[in-house]
Write a structure and sequence with these properties.
Layout (H helix, E strand, L loop, with lengths): L8 E4 L7 E8 L6 E10 L2 E10 L4 H10 L7 E5 L5 E7 L4 E8 L11 E8 L3 H14 L3
Antiparallel strand pairs: 1-2, 2-3, 3-4, 5-6, 6-7, 7-8
Helix pairs in contact: 1-2
Pfam family, one: DUF6228
Length: 144
């Protein structure tokens, strides 16, 4: 089953160097609460992809929407993590820009010699760009 409105992927802003994070391959087996999707991180000299297993999206859509709701700023860093901890999103409002740090991790349990993590930082402007991001993630996960 595809995500609602046939939003099959979301590519989060490409920086001037071509850095991006892509959410794709949405799948909800048997219309269950389980939601599966892929996350791909790309940057110069880096390519990582991991399958994410969530329970109804684990609140990712609500988390990103809360960033847009507070587009004027928030103290400290906000953190969202998938329930299996293979994806983490950290958001920091730096005044005129929002830094989104996406971390992809090896699935649990990982053996010590195969444990890995990759973090890609993306920057979006608060306001319209952040609003579009929240809308795209919400549509992708079927929350809108």
């Amino acid at each position: 089953m595809n995500s609602p409105d046939n939003v099959r992927e979301v590519t989060l802003p490409r920086g001037p160097t071509g850095t991006y994070v892509r959410l794709s391959a949405f799948h909800r087996p048997d219309d269950d609460v389980l939601v599966l999707f892929d996350v791909q991180a790309e940057a110069p000299g880096l390519s990582a992809m991991i399958g994410i297993e969530t329970l109804g999206g684990d609140g990712l859509s609500a988390f990103v929407q809360s960033l847009d709701d507070d587009f004027r700023g928030w103290p400290d860093e906000r953190v969202w993590t998938s329930f299996r901890q293979e994806l983490e999103l950290r958001a920091a409002h730096l005044g005129h820009i929002v830094r989104l740090s996406w971390t992809l991790r090896s699935p649990e349990p990982a053996e010590q010699d195969t444990d890995w993590a990759v973090t890609v930082n993306l920057y979006v402007s608060p306001g319209e760009e952040l609003k579009n991001l929240a809308s795209d993630v919400g549509h992708f996960l079927g929350d809108r």
